[in-house]
Amino acid sequence: MRRLARKGTDTATLCALSIFLSLLVPAHATRSPDCGGILTPSGLSYLAQVSKPHTENVLRQDLMAPTAPELLPSSPEPSRKQINSVKVTELSLSLVPDAGLRLSVDVDLDVTPAPSSTKAMRLSILADLHLEMTPEGNLELVTSTCKATLEEVQSTEDTESKSSSSDMDKEINVNKICPEVSKLLLFPNEQLMSLTAQFPVTPNCQVQYLPLAAPVFSEQGVTISLQTTFQVAGMAIPLPVSPVPFSMPEPASSSPSHLTLALSEHFYTSLFFALEMAGAFNMTIPTPLTTAAMAQKITQMGSLFQEDVPVTLQAVFRSSPRMVLEEGKAALKLFLTVHVGAGSPALQSFVSVHVDMSAGLLLSVADTRMTISAAAIEDNDLSLAASNVGPVPAALLEELLLPTLRAEVPAQLNEVLSEGVILPHISNFTYTNVNIVIHKDYVLVSCDLQLPAQAGEQSAMV
Fold first, then answer.
1. Residue 199 forms beta bridges with which residues?
2. What is the per-residue pLDDT for 232?
3. Rounded to whole angstroms, how far apart are CA atoms 397 and 348?
4. At CB < 8 A and 24+ separation, what contacts does 375-384 make?
5. What is the C-alpha separation between 461 and 177, in angstroms, rounded?
6. Which site among 157, 173, 321, 348 is 20 to 30 Å from 117 CA-CA?
7. Partners of 374 in the beta sheet?
8. Domains of the chain by range and CATH?
9. Rg of the chain over all Cα atoms, to the nearest angstrom
10. How many CB atoms sit inside 10 A of residue 185's CB?
11. Nearest-angstrom CA–CA distance, 102 and 99
């Protein structure tokens, strides 16, 4: 039965290894992105659509509360005006290039200005929003400017069009309504904080995505650059330095997708480096061979093992695995040292070989998780590293070991990778209609956003 050995390293050893590696691996001279995303105008329209229920709930609670601000213009009537109903009819989010977003909300109000009458009013809110970086490294939506107007609209009792000279067609005191706009941003800001949460990769390895700066706003969308960090056993690990700085590719002029994620080749290399440090790739591989069967090929083995026992392989990485991305193709370069031996619990090794392999990879996305699977070994190179049984021809080692390695290494890699890695996202939203395109040095993931029905009641603008 296949067994993946992750016993490797306890916390103290990992910490010591991390400190040691920090001396060997150059630290990032400057923070640089290795992935990012572009929220398109289509994505903004979807967010506005699913935000209407939340916006309506917030405005209803605030405007219909006993302590609601006095919205209507002053009048000589002694009775207090009362808002009976609040309905958001239109909500839109549009891009303001190089600045931020423009929020436009139209709200229908049913107002009782006097005990014996009601009026239909239209409240229009226009606010400019921008995204700031907080000292904690989170993104936060902030209101830049806000303007609110109120006007009377045609009612069933009055067939004439609304009158521009009506006393009700006046501008509202901004100090009374615009604080309500700030309340609308509380929930989306909570969601934005989830972008920088730590997500598990394995039980002792976590990934985190950190914004490097406030997003860039253009006609194509909202572009955010992220830097990936990993923790192993609760300690941040130093990652290899990318030989080529990564920048978000230019967005398509008109993308029908809500969101495009870009993941650099270095992002994947860092992922596999972190998994290696976490001991996730330490492999114990059973073989169909026995010591007696191998002794028929390697005669000196007969003196090492008096009994016929199963032969086992233990594979460790002598160098970190490396992801290689070409047009339409992804591969993982593996640099293994395989110890061939027998005995349990301690393996008595009689031959060690260096094995370099290249495994083709398949990429897919479900929910917000990217799954990586090793499809097959595309090429390999094997050489003798050490031997306690004298010289062994490489051709004989290939005959004895390669069939097992070619089958078992991808299978055990997939045991580690089967859970995938969680992609940058905010809480509640998932990804649908996913299209993955592999380019040289980076992967593009185009997708739509989806808010599950159970989360709809708490939907918010992002």
1. 207
2. 93
3. 18
4. 375/410, 376/410, 377/405, 377/406, 377/409, 377/410, 378/331, 380/355, 380/356, 380/405, 380/406, 381/355, 381/356, 381/357, 382/353, 382/354, 382/355, 382/356, 383/353, 383/354, 384/351, 384/352, 384/353, 384/354
5. 18
6. 173
7. 361
8. 3-40+198-449 (3.15.20.10), 42-191 (3.15.10)
9. 31
10. 21
11. 9
Task: Please report, as a single letter, which amino acid is at residue 406.
Answer: R
Read off the tokens for 187: 């929930």
First to last CA, the chain: 48
Token look-up 């086992």 returns: 312
Strand, helix or coil for residue 64? coil
Among 312, 387, 314, 315, residue whose Cα is nearest residue 357: 315
Question: Of 68, 182, 88, 192, nearest to 127 (Cα)?
Answer: 182
Return d(Cα 91, Cα 51) in angstroms, integer. 8
Q: Express each pLDDT in 123-159 by its tens digit.
A: 999 999 999 999 988 999 999 999 888 888 865 455 4
Residues 34-89 pLDDT 10s: 999 999 999 999 999 999 998 999 888 888 766 555 665 554 444 456 788 889 99
Closest of 122, 184, 172 to residue 147, by C-alpha: 172
Nearest to 143 by CA among 98, 109, 184, 108: 184
Please calculate the CA angle 220-222-228 and round it to the nearest 5 degrees: 125
Q: Which residues contact 416 (CB under 8 A, 6 or more apart)?
A: 4, 202, 275, 280, 281
Tokens read off for 251: 């967005």
Q: Where are the beta strands (DSSP E) in 327-460?
A: 329-342, 348-366, 369-387, 421-422, 430-439, 442-450
Q: What would the two tokens of residue 304 be?
A: 């090492």
C-beta separation of 176 from 72 below 8 A: no
Residue 278: closest CA among 22, 21, 7: 7
Closest of 3, 94, 6, 7 to residue 48, by C-alpha: 94
Question: Are the CB atoms for 397 and 459 separated by under 8 Å?
Answer: no
Give the distance, in angstroms, between the CA of residue 73 and the centroid of all CA atoms in the same chain.
48
Asked if 359 and 330 touch (Cβ cutoff 8 Å), the reply is no
DSSP class per residue in 169-201: -EE--HHHHHHHHHHHTHHHHHHHHGGG-EEEE
Strand, helix or coil for residue 19: helix
Question: Is the Cβ–Cβ distance between 52 and 88 less than 8 Å?
Answer: yes
pTM: 0.83
- Look-up of token digits 């509640």: 428
| Inter-residue contact 104 to 90 (CB < 8 Å) | yes
What are the structure tokens assigned to 25, written together? 């691996």
172/195 Cα distance (integer angstroms): 36
In whole angstroms, give the CA distance from residue 259 to residue 221: 9
